[in-house]
Amino acid sequence: MSSPDIEVKCFSQRVANGVYDRVADAITSLGKDGLGEADFGIDWTTTVQDNYSGTNWSYVNTKDGRPFRTNIVGQIATSTCGTKHSAKGTHFTKKNVPLSDSDTVKWKWALSKPTLCSPNLMDIWENQLTSIEDWVTEESKRAPTSQRIYEKAEGVHHNQDATPRRTKRKNAEDSMIGQQSSAASTSSATTSTTTTNVVIPAPDKGTLYDPRILPDYRGSYFQLRQNKLKQLNIYESTDNGLKLIPMHETYSKLRPGTLILAVCDAHVYNMVQNGQPTSTFQLGVQAMKVLDPSDEPVEERLIPILSTTSVDMSKDDSAIAAFSTFDITVSPAKKKSKGGKGKEKEKMD
Fold first, then answer.
1. Rounded to the nearest 5°, which phi and psi values hold at 33?
2. Contact criterion met (CB below 8 Å) for 156 and 212
3. Smallest Cα–Cα separation from 72: which of 267, 269, 259, 296?
4. In the Cβ-directed half-sphere of 143, how many Cα atoms lie within 13 Å?
5. Sign of the torsion formed by the C-alpha atoms of 119, 84, 261 and 160
6. For the whole model, what pTM was predicted?
7. What integer is the mean pLDDT of 4-23?
8. Which residues of 46-82 are buried (b: 16+ CB within 10 A; e: fewer)?
9. How much helix, strand and coil, in percent to the nearest 5, is found in the chain?
């Protein structure tokens, strides 16, 4: 969502410069390596469960048994649609406990149909959603775009969710144009643009950063002692040399409206919550690159604040004290009207 005083030009420029047409042609050339053309149960299928209990599922290519990976294209949506790209990430605090080294934190990007995209790219987008829905529908018979960002020196993990919806699968040659918006996510809130004076290493695979380089890593919510912010496989556009994007620059480089390509794997996590079985279908980002930047405003990030209040109705709280002493049986002192003496004088004359 753009601010009223900022003119967003990137979408119309993509149309004028043929970006959407080139992206559609490049995705089409991927064939079965693009999610929209990869049919679940035919091109990829479930492999052995990836944990001892057998409740989590991974996927392989049907033809060679290699781990299934696929390419998905889309436009980064805002936080109101589901994107969680901040120092807090996907972390959910329970019982007002701060984030610590024992917690898992991931980034999640929601994708939407590219704004003003060409008919061919629209078909590709809808085919991607259809592939996801086919996967969910079939796997649901057996059993509802994230990434880990803090850890010690070893380990790598990416991930992103996408929301499936019913669409009609089309071929790239079809000329049908549906102007129905099919957003899968995003909007966030306030952050400082300055960073603490910490050493920032050059980005490289495996680089670990002081998490304070993120402008919203502030306050008592964050209690990391050993874990660091790790460099993810996020790359600049081809025009910018496909360089790794430093972690503290991702807020700007992956702002809403950015056109991206991500290579993902797939997982299903089956759990029991509140006594009911649930299944989470996840596309895990292995790498992401910018296809075309956005000039939408960078979303502000709120600095998380832990609550210091208790459930007790303490009269030390001014609002509780005011509630306790509120009484409508006592008549308030009448206020003297302005010029009252003058009116009385007129009556006496």
1. -85, -5
2. no
3. 259
4. 23
5. negative
6. 0.76
7. 92
8. beeeeeeeebbbbbbbeeeeeebbbbbbbbbbbbebb
9. 25, 20, 55
